[in-house]
Write a structure and sequence with these properties.
The chain has eight helices and eleven strands. By secondary structure, it is of the alpha/beta class. The strands form three sheets. A seven-stranded parallel beta sheet has the order 3-2-1-4-7-8-11, sandwiched between helices. The protein has a two-stranded parallel ribbon with strand order 5-6. β9, α7 and β10 form a beta-alpha-beta unit. α1 crosses α8. The longest helix is centred in the middle third of the chain and has 28 residues. It is globular, with a radius of gyration of 18 Å. The relative contact order is 0.16.
């Protein structure tokens, strides 16, 4: 296999204390990338549901220290930093920290995600038994603050610093969900992810002259700890292509998109099925 060209690159991965973000951090570090793993600890009550396994709440509430330890045990380099991406001052601080510790950020992975099920239809729970609420300014602002606005601000910070130093190599990967066709039952979440997708595809068009590729990965249901046996059965009963992926499945695709082998892949929305 050819060298993916990732040794000593610097990546900023958001939402990296568990699940997909943690797997991406480990996968990139395994190829020599120096990783800044950001996260925000959530309390079990933030999950807004009693349907989740207890271990999922514990993972959401943990720091990313275990991820850093895993990386360093395998000979890689990583640091963890807790940050609320809704704070407009956070993007600059994260990039400053990355530059101080490892050097300029060359790989940006927008993985962090807020989640809350809201709907236009009056119903108490979704098909997985999770509580629903009506679409409101509160649900909109909560979800767009992380999934859309924070992703846009991180891309903007990445682009400003990349062009200022006349860099010629860069990668942006967004972790989407659903798509632009709508997301019934998770209306604001789907809309926020669609906005992130649009920002990323715009970056692909605007930044390609500067050697930057930008793509979006659309995972299927991913077992990050929230999937119970009943939920898995409901998902897999959906027919061909309805299956549950592992965080590592997604991490491998992200690592490929960051590699030199994917230098001509940009502006793509890549569903994993």
């Amino acid at each position: 296999m050819r060298d993916p060209g990732l040794t000593a690159r610097v990546a900023l991965v958001t939402g990296a204390n568990h699940g997909i973000g943690a797997a991406i951090s480990r996968e990139l570090a395994g190829h020599g990338v120096r990783v800044v793993a950001t996260y925000l600890r959530m309390s079990p009550t933030d999950l807004d549901s009693e349907q989740y396994p207890a271990a999922y709440g514990e993972a959401r509430g943990a720091a990313a220290d275990v991820v850093v330890t895993d990386v360093e045990t395998r000979g890689g380099k990583a640091i963890a930093v807790e940050a609320d991406l809704r704070d407009p001052e956070v993007p600059a601080r994260l990039f400053d920290l990355a530059e101080k510790e490892f050097g300029p950020v060359e790989i940006l992975v927008n993985n962090a995600s807020a989640w809350k099920a809201d709907t236009f239809v009056p119903q108490e729970t979704d098909r997985f038994g999770r509580p629903h609420s009506a679409v409101s300014q509160r649900t909109h602002d909560f979800l767009f603050g992380v999934d859309a606005r924070a992703s846009a601000m991180l891309i903007a910070e990445f682009a400003e610093r990349h062009t200022a130093r006349a860099a010629t190599w860069g990668r942006i990967v967004g972790i989407g969900s659903g798509g632009a066709g709508g997301f019934p039952g998770e209306v604001s979440y789907g809309a926020a992810k669609a906005a992130m997708q649009s920002y990323t595809l715009s970056a692909a068009q605007e930044l390609w002259p500067y050697g930057v590729t930008a793509n979006v990965v659309l995972p299927p249901a991913v077992d990050t700890g929230w999937i119970s046996a009943e939920t898995r059965a409901a998902i897999e009963a959906g027919g061909p292509g309805s299956r549950v992926a592992s965080p590592e499945d997604i991490a491998e695709v992200v690592c490929l998109l960051a590699s030199d082998q994917a230098r001509f892949i940009t502006g793509q929305v890549i569903p994993i099925r």
